[in-house]
């Protein structure tokens, strides 16, 4: 019995020593809450130079010091970037390679990051940078470093030649990426019975996006793309994901314009930012029309307080009596100025 007691006492003492060892630093294992690391920047006031847009310069070099979790282990590190006031709600994150202690940003990459965070071009704005370190289920964050960055405009374009304009890249309308982040948008007016088109990276046929392997995708080796129909559509091209979407814009609908179940898409006049369409209207003096956005009643315009005016969600616009087979009208709206015209032609 005495022997058993001695063995138990020894086992308990050993366990106590092991537990104590787990809280020691040095060569013994320690897994606490972790001590955050740190990040420093080679410069905290950066005016970006557009002449270095295409070079491999280093506009800023970040140096990190690893967090301390009490023992040597593979820590997952990220640099997080956010704008002042966002409170890290939607940070942009960059994962560092294992063992890396530095991360450099070129002028191009830092400019794109600053614009993505909402900084204005040619004006100094602030970007916060911190180190996020994770080991197992424990994550710690360093104190943030504040950079004052002045970005420049980095807009780039792709071009949309097609049947609607004679398949000429040199004179084709364009889609624009304000920050050169691979996402290009623009309204294209498609007309005629042939709705085919492609998207070129320059005003020539050197490289052109066509139809991808599945609906909604594009490929540099694909055949012609096809617009959903006549009218002005907002195109959104993502060259990273190789996707393309079409979003209808303003349209005319009503029992004077063929019924309440079919929209007649309007075209964008890019000179004065109005929308127009020439279509047949048929009315006995009581038939009506309205205008709606994205073929949806969530945003619609009807009659305003005065002649030729519009109001959000307003009443139907009455069309005067037409010939028995209807009359052709050019209809124009200004969704910003809330005005419209009906011109019989």
UniProtKB/TrEMBL annotation:
<protein>
    <submittedName>
        <fullName>SusE domain-containing protein</fullName>
    </submittedName>
</protein>
<dbReference type="Pfam" id="PF14292">
    <property type="entry name" value="SusE"/>
</dbReference>
<dbReference type="InterPro" id="IPR025970">
    <property type="entry name" value="SusE"/>
</dbReference>
<keyword id="KW-0732">Signal</keyword>
<feature type="signal peptide">
    <location>
        <begin position="1"/>
        <end position="20"/>
    </location>
</feature>
<feature type="domain" description="SusE outer membrane protein">
    <location>
        <begin position="38"/>
        <end position="132"/>
    </location>
</feature>
